[in-house]
Amino acid sequence: MQSKILTGNFTFKSLRPPDLSNCTKRELCEYFENSYDLNESLFTALKDDSVFYKCPDRLRLPLIFYFCHTAVVYVNKLMLAGLINERVNLEFETMFETGVDEMSWDDTENYRMGGGYKWPSVDSVVEYRRNVRNVVLKVIHDTPLELPVTMESPWWAILMGIEHERIHLETSSVLIRQLPVELVTKPKGWVYAPFKCGGRVEENPLISVEAQDVTFGKPREFPSYGWDNEYGEFSTRVPAFEASKFMVTNGEFLEFVESGGYEDEKFWTEEGWKWKQYRQSKHPVFWVCNHGCKGGCGADLAQYSHCHLPNTVSNGVMNGSLTNGHSREIINGGEKRNYMYRAMFDVMPMPLDWPVDVNYHQARAFCAWKGFGFRLPTEAERNVMKGNKLMKNGGTEGDIIYQKKPKANINLQYGSSTPVNMYPGNELGFHDMFGNVWEWAEDHFNGLNGYNSHWFYDDFSSPCFDGRHNLILGGSWIATGDEASKFARFAFRRHFIQHAGFRMARSLQQADKVDVPARLIKDEVFVLGVGVEEKEVPNEDEMEFKWVPTTNYQYGFDTEDSLYGILEMEFGFRDSFPHCVAHHCLSLQKAYKCDTNSAVWLGSGTGRGPLELTNVFQNVLGIDFAARFIDAAEKLQNGKTLTYNTSNGQQKMATMTGVYKPDQAVFKQMTWIPNEICDHNMTIVTFLDRTMNAKAWLARLWEITVKSGIVVIVSKQAEWSQENLAPFLGNKLVFKETKDLKYTAKEGELNAQVTVWQRQ
Where exactly are the structural domains of the chain? Predict the structure, then answer.
């Protein structure tokens, strides 16, 4: 497998990131190739080609997707940055562009996981990866390097591709770890950590931390790559608290399981208990028992269970006999255990002193079992717990990932977790504040004050500011590059499986109900097909959390009031905005002799405008980021009548009238223009005033419009003039004309500005 899939070198040695204030092209080239090599080397563990098409997690895609996906992202970002003008393989760059982020643990298995979907051969993906490697190397060679490299530089796109690849090094490792062990082989040079460091970790004491102020966030001038959610700043007062010295170990969690606490509903949140019941979870996912527990794989592995113990075990562990269907007894260090441990490529005796790998629900249940007031640390508390030595915001020497010999299990020093007492504690006494496994926090994922997305990857973070994702902090043993940085902030849905664990915390305030400096998102988020799920407040009788608005500006347009407002705008007036835009676009179609095969409307609202286009265009695609709007558009498309409240308190009805062809329209919720949105004869944009990063939507308009097709940009804001739009649209769209468009709204007769562009 190694000689078959590698397009570079085999390695598990990770380089440190370049200092972007004084790096050379050679350093950038080496860092890119090291990232590419690491990812490919991980896939050499798969036993044969067939394993690439297996689904280790029923809610994720087959491994072939992740093997190709990272290469595709380089091409997509280099195209946006203007560093390349031609794609390598549009079919691949469409098929492998977008993964999944399931909304719930019981989502339907993604159609691309198997069945009738035809994935390309491993050989063709390897050849694609080789071609992309050469393209990136040529870009690095040919592009002038101006220092420092900042997020305004086109080089940011290259670094974005590199750090995205390093994220997926970890993503893929989690998936490979979920495969049946017989489908993988431990690669040469992969080293697991020792089980113990000195004596057993028998206790995990709490360390008290006094009340203090804390400020965190990555400065824009710090000379390393960062993801959008790291930037900005947040300051708060952190009340006195205590937290566990170590992360919770497998040994500690075993006591929770053996005591029966894991099976007791009273220790679980409502959401967590629903997940547990659905998954029929009896223990952490990387523990192995002999009871055939329900697995989580997909497609042809759907019936597979990890929970069958191997017939032989090495390292001095003896197996008892298996009789009458009873689980065998594992003798480990003189203690009887009913569990073993799934490392990356092997099932081994339970490493009791390694941190336990769990999701948020399991971590929260353990805290409740430990007693009144126990919870997970907050992001603010965890920044206090880091201590002062690594909190200075100077040069790269202040970030642990740049240290030559960091005293932390990061950057693939080992191919596994390490004992929680292996590395020394910091000046406050806390161990593993960086690395080993990620730590779940109580906070919902959200941006910091001053958050802005980057137009190269507008929807990297912001869709996850929904109250359904919790922060994970600190990095893991396989975290490299930006992931292992002191500034790293990532998040997953609370049921996700990751190399993640936790430590406990408890407030020291003397009150019946204590203030917890965790930021929880108060906004409702509507999910297509689900609606609004009620927000659950853990231990609300004991703790008072901070409820804050989401920093995703676009969620503010996805409220019931906003839905009523747009229904009134679209259906409350004879010469409504979308009606007038649609009428004008149909006149432009005639004037420019535009083909009528396909039109796309970005900012489709509740659908009146796109549906009116179906009288001329054979296929009309309506796109909006607001789920409520798309839901309403689909209902109106199907002939339903919607009731809404007007701005003056009246109740009115919205329904599509007149002649239109509903079967020729499709509505989709999207937070980005993916490559699957392509080849339209007319592209219409009407929502620049409600996007977070208009440039991100404008940058690809030329590419989704066919040659000689037209782009129509309509804005109610004067700032989107021809002169202001031109720098964002590139040189493939030629300005043709501008016009004021009159329409009627509750304020009376208004003007919108229309600019027309034609694709060369």
Answer: 2-183, 206-250+358-544, 560-759
pLDDT at position 123 is 97
* Bridge partner residues of 757 (DSSP): 711, 735
Q: Which two tokens stand for residue 331?
A: 């003798």
Distance CA(104)–CA(530), nearest Å, equals 10
Q: Count of H helices and E strands in the chain?
A: 17, 28
Cα-Cα-Cα-Cα torsion 627, 628, 630, 632, nearest 10 degrees, comes to: 160
Q: What angle, 0 to 180 degrees and rounded to 10, lies between the N-to-C axes of helices 250-258 and 360-370? A: 70
Facing residues of 355 across strands? 249
The pLDDT tens digits of the residues spanning 141-172 come to 999 999 999 999 999 999 999 999 999 999 99
Half-sphere exposure of 402 (CA within 13 A, CB side): 17
- The DSSP call for residue 521 is E
Say if CB 577 and CB 752 are below 8 A apart: yes
Contact between 59 and 298 (Cβ < 8 Å):
yes
Sort residue 482 into left (φ over 0), alpha (ψ -120 to 50) or beta: alpha
- Give the span between the Cα atoms of 141 and 575, in whole angstroms: 55
Mean pLDDT of 310-330: 39
Q: How many CB atoms neighbour CB 709 within 10 A?
A: 23
Mean pLDDT of 226-234: 98
* Three-class secondary structure of residue 12 per DSSP: coil
Q: What is the C-alpha separation between 356 and 248, in angstroms, rounded?
A: 6
Containing 288, the helix (H) or strand (E) segment is strand 287-288
- Distances in Å between the alpha carbon of 476 and those of 413, 501, 573? 11, 10, 56
Determine the Cα–Cα distance for residues 60 and 430; give it in Å rounded to an integer.
35
Nearest 10 degrees: Cα torsion 485, 486, 487, 489: 80
Q: Report the distance separating Cα 353 and Cα 251, nearest Å.
A: 6
pLDDT at 116 over 90: no
- Residue 736: both structure tokens together: 């043709």
CATH number of the domain at 206-250+358-544, please?
Answer: 3.90.1580.10
Q: What are the phi and psi torsion angles at 112 (to 5°)?
A: -80, 0
Q: How far apart are alpha carbons 730 and 601 in whole angstroms?
A: 20
Residue among 603, 606, 627 nearest 697 (CA): 603
Question: What pTM value is reported for the model?
Answer: 0.94
378-397 burial, b for 16+ CB within 10 Å, e for fewer?
A: bbbbbbbbbeeebeeeeebe
Distance between CA 287 and CA 292 in Å, rounded?
12
Residue 119 and residue 471: Cα distance in Å, rounded? 33
Helix (H, G, I), strand (E, B) or coil at 748: strand
Are domains 206-250+358-544 and 560-759 of this chain identical in fold?
A: no
| Residue 358 identity | V
Q: How far apart are alpha carbons 438 and 417 in whole angstroms?
A: 11
pLDDT at 318 over 60: no
Contact in structure between 706 and 759 (CB atoms under 8 Å): yes
CA 192 centroid distance within chain? 28
Task: Kindly report the CATH number that applies to the domain delimited by 560-759.
Answer: 3.40.50.150
Strand 651-654, strand 642-645: pairing: antiparallel
Token pair 């109900």 in the structure block, residue: 513
* pLDDT tens string 238-282: 999 999 999 999 999 999 999 999 999 999 999 999 999 999 999
Q: What are phi and psi of 332, to 5 degrees?
A: -130, 105
Other beta carbons within 10 Å of 265? 11
**Alpha-carbon distance 478 to 235, whole Å?**
30
- Which strands sit side by side in the sheet containing 318-319, from one edge to the other? 318-319, 330-332, 335-337
Residue 680: strand pairing partners: 705
- Residue 368 has φ and ψ, to the nearest 5°, of -65, -40
